[in-house]
Amino acid sequence: MADDVVSTERSRGGMSEQRRRRVRLEISREAARLFWAQGVDGTSGDQIAEAVGLSTRTIWRHFRSKESCAEPIVAQSVEWELATLRSWPLHRSLEEHFATEAKRLVSEISPSEQADAGLGVKMIRLAETEPALRTAWLMACDQVEHELAAVVATRLGLKLDDLQVRLHAAAAAAALRVINEYVGAGLLDGTDPRKLGDESFAFIADAVRTATGGAVGDPVQVDEAPAAPDEGAADRQE
Q1: pTM of the predicted model, to two decimals?
Q2: How far apart are CA 183 and CA 135, in angstroms?
Q3: What is the C-alpha to C-alpha distance for residues 163 and 65, in angstroms, rounded to an integer?
Q4: How many other CB atoms sit within 10 Å of the CB of residue 122?
Q5: Residue among 6, 125, 110 at smallest CA distance from 57
Q6: Helix and strand tally (H, E) in the chain?
Q7: How many angstroms separate the CA atoms of 137 and 151, rounded?
């Protein structure tokens, strides 16, 4: 079925970017399930293709290796945090914003999004012993750091390439990585979620404050809000 859709898209002149991302995520879901069930070494590209209903050749058009198939689902595991940071209003503290977005998450998250989050947690755990999956996880963390830099620059009124911005972004991203690994491992081990952190996710905001020495987390006066940073500066450095 999925292979038929891919073939139809190709015959119409190519796959849209949105459709390409959807296909990659579908492949990633099945690959993650197989990796968790039977290990990375025990999983082949042919098995991934069969599970998702695509040809093996199509799998290799979308991914450079079987291990890289995990990348979209791993990246998806931090998407909520990224979306929350992107939408952080200047007039709110990070604690207030996380509390608001946590309530929204509970009421709006779909079953498929919950399943994806669970698969992401499993891949992060598996990354502890699988170097290729560790690479996928660190790539996702790098994206978090990149987006955090824009948030920090805006709130502190500094340029994206300012050393303080980069240091704060790196420290905050590292804190988020550790929290994800700690909470994910606890959940998989059967720990009561209430013992891992509060429902408003204030512990995440506290970690960001601690990591940045208190520089990031407070509200910013709207009438004194700094100009938005030059986002192209970070891209030019890559």
Answers
A1: 0.81
A2: 20
A3: 36
A4: 22
A5: 6
A6: 13, 0
A7: 21
Contact call for residues 136 and 67 (beta carbons, < 8 A): yes
E runs forming strands in 49-93: none
The predicted-structure confidence for 9-39, as pLDDT tens digits, reads as follows: 444 445 689 999 999 999 999 999 999 999 9
Domains of the chain: 2-68 (1.10.10.60), 77-237 (1.10.357.10)
Which residue numbers in the chain have pLDDT < 50?
A: 1, 4-5, 7-13, 234, 236-238
Interval 203-232: pLDDT, tens: 899 999 999 999 999 999 866 555 555 555
204 CB contacts (<8 Å, ≥6 apart)? 81, 98, 176, 179, 197
To 10 degrees, the CA torsion angle through 204, 207, 212, 213? Answer: 130
Q: What angle do CA 61, 37, 60 make, to 5 degrees?
A: 5
Report whether 66 contacts 40 (CB < 8 A). yes
Rg (CA), the chain: 19
From the list 113, 141, 126, 109, the residue with the least C-alpha distance to 29 is 113
- Encoding tokens for residue 2? 């999925």
